[in-house]
Design a protein that fits this description.
Length: about 250
């Protein structure tokens, strides 16, 4: 569920991947635009930035990184009065800060910047409050309690399109489009602390959830992806507003 989870936060750090000697980010070197290995340089700078980002970057307004928080998600399986419905609130995720940029492609022109990123996160741990109703197969799944999830081998692809503009003598970027998709290799998840629950039914429910975790993630994905794109877009816009385009790629 959280899989993409901020994959987001760190993933967009690539967009300032070469901020060089700017505003306390002296640990990064700028990437020359005409460097034949520009993409490798940007990927390397992005990974250096994410390593520092794990301890927070207060100079960019991020004193701490984790946990990543989403307000709520919904899932719906089956129709009719017995169809399964679940709502997850106060969703927190940890582990996103271990993100690595494993691939990068860029297309630069005077009026547009495009970035395609491949990202990898070893493990994300998520927790949430949940409420559900209906049945899963023959298991009564109505109730409320705590949700937990462990997502191993998270992979994500992010596409960013932005346009340069001039402000106070500097070029900046304005985000035009952001798209993303993700996958999870292995998933473990379940519910616990369910009020007035039957231990046998709860065990059966958790068995079903883990046996069908990929299918459940597939049902969550549209809502989750929409939320993550919103979070990631806000993050990128904030970074673009603070770090001039001229600071991360040199002519």
């Amino acid at each position: 569920m959280k899989s993409a989870v901020l994959l987001c936060a760190c993933s967009l750090l690539i967009s300032v991947g070469a901020v060089g000697r700017y505003r306390g980010l002296e640990f990064l070197d700028p990437c020359p635009r005409r460097d034949p290995k520009l993409e490798a340089c940007l990927a390397r700078s992005a990974n250096v930035l994410t390593e520092h980002f794990r301890q927070g970057l207060p100079q960019l307004g991020y004193p701490e990184v984790e946990p990543i928080i989403l307000d709520e998600l919904h899932i719906s399986l089956g129709g009719g009065p017995d169809g399964y419905r679940a709502q997850f609130k106060e969703i927190t995720a940890k582990g996103v800060s271990a993100l690595r940029v494993t691939g990068l492609r860029t297309r630069l022109s005077d009026d547009e910047v495009q970035l395609q990123l491949a990202l990898s996160i070893p493990k994300i741990r998520a927790a949430a409050r949940y409420r559900s109703s209906g049945t899963l197969i023959l298991v009564q799944a109505s109730g409320a309690g705590d949700y937990w999830g462990e997502y191993d081998g998270v992979k994500a692809k992010v596409f960013i399109r932005a346009k340069p503009f001039m402000a106070q003598g500097y070029r900046y970027l304005r985000l035009q489009q952001l798209k993303m998709d993700f996958s999870v290799q292995n998933i473990k998840m379940g519910v616990e602390n369910v009020r007035d629950s039957n231990p046998i039914l709860l065990a059966a429910l958790n068995l079903f959830i883990n046996s069908n975790s990929q299918e459940l993630l597939k049902e969550m994905k549209p809502d989750l992806r929409r939320k993550l794109v919103q979070v990631m877009s806000a993050f990128v816009e904030k970074l673009f507003a603070q770090v001039p385009y001229d600071a991360w790629i040199t002519d």
